[in-house]
Every structure is written in C-alpha cells, then in structure tokens.
Amino acid sequence: MTTTHVDGYLRHIMAVCAEDRSGSVADYIPELARVDPDGYGLSLCVHDGHVYSEGDGVVGFTIQSISKALTYALLLTRIGRDEVDAKIGVEPSGEAFNEISVDDNRRPKNPMINAGAIMATSLLLPPVRDVDQATVDRVYGELVEFYSACAGRRLTLDEDVYRSEAQTGSRNRAIAYMLDSFGVLDTDPEAALDLYYRQCSLLVTTVDLSVIGATFANGGLNPRTGRQVLAQEVAQRVLSVMTTCGMYDGAGDWVSSVGLPAKSGVGGGILAILPGQLGIGVYSPRLDRHGNSVRGIDTCRHLSTDLGLHMFNLTRESRVTIRSVYDITEFEVSEDWTERERGYLRTCRERVRVYELQGDLTFSGAEAAMRRLSDDIDDYDVAIVDISRIGVVDPVARTMVLTFKHTLDERGQAGLVVDPDRVMRDSVERHRNDQLAPDLLAPQALRGFDPTLPHVHSTMEAAVTDAEAFLLKRRLGEGDVFGG
C-alpha cells in the first residue's frame, strides 16, 4: 500500500546515505563521544500528523543546538519581537556555531549560534544578578512544557549529558561572561548557562523532530495533538531565521541545494521543515567540520531533490488535494452490456469509488491522496482517480499514482485514471528517461511500463465503462455466466 511505498523510498535513501562513514562524533562533550557512531534514523511527519519513520526513529538522543530554534520561539512568544530584536540580531554570522561573535552593537548576530542562544535563555530568566535555583528550575519546567507541546509528548532530560556539558563547557562559559562584560546580559550568567545546558540535554527522537517540524510548518498548530502551540507569526519568524542561520557557516550551500529551513545539533540530529507541508527529523551522529550530521545533510538533500521539496519549487500545491469522493450510483449503466449484466452492475455501483483530485500534484499532495485510497482499500473493488482538475503532475507524484494502480492489480482490484488533458500522459512522456521514480519508489511497478497508459481515460464515462467491464470479468472469473 501507499505507506509501504513511501517507507520503501525512505529505506532506499537511507541505504544509499549509510555508505558514507565520513565524519566523527562530537568528542568535546565526553558523553556524546560514547554514542554509537552508526546510529541512523529518519522520520517524516506530514501536515495531518501522519508519521513515516525508518531506522533508529525511536532512539533517543540529545537535542543539542536544535533547541535554539525552540527557545527562540518561546522567547518571541513571551516578550515579543521588538524586545528580542533589541537583544539578538538575525543576520548570518558566517562563522562556526561556537564562535565568540557579536555585531557592532554587541548583540549576538543571531539566535542560532551559541552566543545568541545563551542570550535567548538569559532573557527567559528575571533580570537580576542573583537568580536562585528554584527560579531556574521553574523556568526550565516552562521550557520543557513548551518543547513537549511542540513534540506532542513529554520530553525528559539526559542527566549524564547535562552534567558532562556543565563540567566541560568552558567555551560557552567564556561566551556568557563576554556578553556579561559587554553589559548586554541582564541576569546571572551561571543561571543562564545552567538553563542552556539543560535545554541542550533534552532527549528527542527523529519522530519528535518531525512532529516539531510539522508544528512549525503548520503555523504553530501541532497536527498530532490539534493544539495551537505558538502563533503563526512566531513560526514564520523562526523559519526565516532557520533558513539563513540554522546550518551555521554552511547555511548558504544548504539553502541553495536543499532549500528547507533547518537546524542541526552536534548530537547528530537535523530538523528540516517544508512550510505548509511537513517536518523532517534525521539522526546520524557523525559530523562534518561545520558540526552538522554528514548523513543527515545527504539525506535531506535526497529528500529535497528527489521529492521536489525545495521551498522555491513553485507549484500551486493545495493542501486539500482530494476535492470529492463518491461512488458511481449516479451514472447510468452502459448500454454495451446484456440485460442480465446490467442487472448485476446495478447491484454493485457502490464498489466503484471515484476520487476527484485538484491542484498541482507533488509529493505532499500525492502522499495524502494515495494514503486516503490506501486507508479505504477494503471498501471498493475499483478506484477511479479523476485528475481533470490537476494542472501539473511531477515525476514522484506520477509514480505514486501509477504504483498504487499496481498495488490494486496485485490485490485483484483495479485502479483507473480520468485524464482529459493528458496531464499524466504528458508527465510520462516528459520524464520517460527519468530514473528517479522507478528506481526509488516502485521498481516493480514501472519496469517495462506501457507508455500508452492502459486504463487511463479521457472521460469519466469511459472510466465507468471500464470499471463495469472489470466487475463483469471478475464475476465471470468466479464461475458465473451471463446470458443474453
């Protein structure tokens, strides 16, 4: 079924990316040096909360710098954009994540580098020089509540990593006291550092990251819980800063080649987001020289390129791809059949279901539509997919539709397409030599695929007649013979 097709694709790219064993785990934090360097998980959460997950998708790892995006969102929610902007810039630094970096006004250049993140955590604390532990604990509890609301489940702390970071975080301590010496830190530096180390040491999975991503993609609405966790304008602001600053000094290459707002962490995680559509979580702890997951970057590049997820991939994508669903009761039985055959066909009109699609069909829309057909698969014998209101069918979406037809064939059912404007046919002809779809999504479905597209019709009436022929043929195959 469709779920298997998407999962199969995720497994395929993981197999390709797993061959790269370059990079090394973060060893400057002793506890992180102990993780399995070959751990690898990938999860994708679409706009309605459905999650696809492969590999080590439920293995916990510390969120590390991915937390910066969440704390920035919480801070914007708490004190507002103007006050945050007065303290933290939004310009790319072009420097390493742990660089001691400020602008001409002695503000950290953005909230995605350590200096900006420590400033952000400090602004959650009261502006006093002596912050007691009870206050830090209270603010930390509020922070965990917010993170957990974004993830859709209660997150917990990795105590060992927290202690390890606190004991070895000399550079972060230097950053905090530098900000304090500039007179821009209004609270106790040690309290800000304690809060920062704790937020970085929260345990997440790639499933959590994908749900967090989908929450931001949906304008702050968690699709799994239905809870509005943050305002749409806050989500927009965070996604903007993630786009330009989230991948540190590798941000420019990331935006041009992957084109997704993203945030990485030295624990091996990457959070990537396609606004309005989905969230991605990847985990692989081998890091490149920028501190980003080697396999994670490669995985996201495959997802973006192969599935057309670049945010500047301009289409008229509609979230509600299925316009209408109905059976063929309203259509008269064809005059082509004998009276007995027509009598039989009148008894099973509800076993033919029509799905009208609309908009431009890319991966996100095709995934939602084919998953609906998959969920309903026991409720019909023939599915007619009407794409007469579809403007563009990209290669991956085309393959998903045709692969689902193949799935129905294997189950003894039938999948038909209504394509009056030759959208599907033109897509096949344009991409006749495109190896992406057959190789990655459905090798068995399209190997030797007939480019004339049997069971693709120019009118609904022709599709209904074809559906009737299928029902009659299957009835005859069960031993019945229709007389004249």
Automatic annotation (TrEMBL):
Pfam families: Glutaminase. Its EC number is 3.5.1.2. Residues 352-467 form the STAS domain. It comes from the Bacteria. One of its GO terms (molecular function) is glutaminase activity. It is an enzyme of class 3 (hydrolase). Keywords: Acetylation, Hydrolase. GO terms for biological process: glutamate biosynthetic process; L-glutamine catabolic process. It catalyses: L-glutamine + H2O = L-glutamate + NH4(+). PROSITE patterns: STAS. Substrate binds at residues 65, 114, 165, 172, 196, 248, 266. Homotetramer. Belongs to the glutaminase family. This is Glutaminase. It comes from Gordonia insulae. The gene is glsA1.
